[in-house]
Every structure is written in C-alpha cells, then in structure tokens.
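Hey, can you fold this one?
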Amino acid sequence: MMVVEAHNVVKRFGAREAVAGIDLSVPPGVCFGLLGPNGAGKTTTLRMVYGVIRPTSGTVHVFGIDVAKHPRAVRSRLGVTLQQNVLIEALSPVENLRVFGRYHLLERSVLERRVEELLDFLELRSHAHVPVKHLSGGFQRRLAIALSLVNDPELLILDEPTTGLDPAVRLALWARVRALRAAGKTVLLTTHYMDEAQRLCDRVAIVSQGKVLSEGAPEALIATHLAREALECECEEREVPVLLDGLPVAHVLRTGDRLTVYADDVSAIADVIRARDGGERRTLVLRPTNLEDVFLALTGSTLEGEA
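Sure. Predicted structure:
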C-alpha cells in the first residue's frame, strides 16, 4: 500500500487554481520530493496531504485513509515541519519538546526518553536549555524538525526544510533526513533547490503551475528528458548549425546567448567544437546534467525564474 495516494487533485482559491489535477503515489520507506519554484502549488499540495485544507475535487489518501473525511486519524501518524518555524520563543528546546509531546498525549517516561533521543539526533544538546529567541536560525530549524519527530511519525512532511540556511546547516540537516530514511521512515518534502532534491530524494515530482510535469528517480528523469552530461558555452544563434552539424547531440537548449548541449559524452563534442572554432576561442563548461536542466527543458524557465 502506498503511504500517500493523490488522484486528480484540484484546489482553487476563488478564481485562482493553485493545484490543477495532481496525481501522486508515495511508496513506504522513501524520500519523495516535490521540486518546483515558489508558487508552483507544492505547499498547497502538502496542506491537502496533512488535512489542513480540503481539495476542491479529487481525493487524497494517506495510509489508505481519506484525509478529507478522517483528518485526525491521519494527523496522529504524521510529523510536519512547516516553512515557517512554529516555536515558543520564551521556552528552551527541551521545554518546547515537552509541550509538543504533551500535545500528542505521550506518557511522561516515553516523552522524556524521546526528548533525550531528539536532542542527540538533531545535535541540540549544547543549546538544550537556551531560550529559543536566542538561538540561531539553524538551531531553530533543527528544533522545528525535532518537534515534528516527537510522536515518532510514520510519515515526515518537510516543507522547504533548508530555505534560508547557510550551506553547513543545510548539509547537517540533509544528513539527518538521510538517517531517517535509512531507519525506514517515509519522507515527503518540498524544495526549489535542485541539489537538495537530487541528493536526498529517491523519487522526485517536478511541479509547475499546479501540475506534475514528470515524476521518477532523479537519474531516470535526466536520462528520459536529456542525457548524462551537459556542455555550456556562449554562442550566437547563427553559429549553432556550424558548430553542431553532424554531432551526436541528444538535446539543445538556448537561454539568451547561452547554449547548452546534452549528450552521454560531451568531451568528444567539445573536441569537435574546439577544432571547428580553430582553438580555444570560447570557454566550454562540461558538467553532469542536473534536475534544473530537466526543469528548464520541461518548462522553458529556471527554478528561480518562474513566476
């Protein structure tokens, strides 16, 4: 049984259609990512999954339960970290964890053991008794994730978990998410960071304008829509036919004067372009293809650039 199943889900707010017929299937024990720019409908989709809002049409089942009909039965088995931290700033991390544990009606002995486990797991012990208002953004984010784990949820939902954090904190939180997945937890997250989706997620749904454009493992999405490697260079439009004539190119994208060529081996293509240029006339950048390339190929815009 799928942990999350959404079928033809639509959500309208007045005349605005935020979600336009999304289908999702999230299997147990994976990290599943919704990848797309701000305004794509990712957060609205999550809010329907954890039962805060109801779909205008379509159905969402979590653990086989219709969330719209039985939201409490679903929420008791979830952990949710929102985009904005929801913390009691006058209290310390330990006190926040205890308050949240009592909300879940955990027995005192169970709660105290869980608090100790989470202080270590999220590396909060050094600041365990410091009021939240004095903690850095990174420590506050760790605490927000710890709160969502107090009830030992079967499904952890993370909405843009590392937005605004410095690279070191992002890497630390990625390590915790990987540890949860390795322990058998199912994780459903949203992100507009290509590297986050590619490094954390077993499966990714690329979302734009309220629709899922493509879904699969990151490597499979790259292989399906483009190719393993990319070559970038500055190139006028009139030069393209001359430079690429007869070359084994899988896909070509242009953004202004920037040309990106995709193939399974771009080093050989680079050698031909240099020969046709008569030397090192232009800078060639060779790199692995990533999910941002896939998004650009599917939508014609970048993850940061779509309105």
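The mean pLDDT is 93. Let me know if you want another pass with a different chain boundary.
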